[in-house]
Amino acid sequence: MRFRRRRTAEPQEPPQPSDRWRWEVVYAAVLAVIAAVLITLTLRANDRVTQLSANPGLTVDVTAFKWQWGFDYRDRGVEIVGEEGETPTLTVPADTTIRFTLRSNDVIHAFWIPYARFKRDAFPDRTTEFDLSFDDPGVHEGICAEFCGLDHTIMRFDVEVLPPDEFADWLSQAGGAR
Length: 178
Description:
178 residues; 2 domains; five-stranded mixed beta sheet; 25% helix
């Protein structure tokens, strides 16, 4: 009822474009500038996250496999491999840059440490490298954040952050226990 017209009323011509096209060009230009700024900021932040240290204090090879994790402390003689029914512990020193190499033996998994607000995918037949450092000693949870099969929910690990001197003691004890 609202838009009905009387039959006697003359049909009105719709508004014709006049100078509005200039405002549309300005609007499109502003949107393009905003998009360019956001893309630039995103790429710069990504470069900072993916930049690798020239001299990491420790290198740990992380292997994801059928609902479990393996941590190999390269050149230190320590390897932690999770088994069914137990949660493996990744022990790292505080205030140290740690180089991780991540890969998967079977399907795509995700190495996620919510405390560090860091997640990286592990792919079969591809190695991914990244650096992390942990500031505060303590134990934090790590999980697989990529659905990888029926027992995906049990694919967890602990991250134990130790002061550097305690980590050195742990490393010597773990290396001797092999």
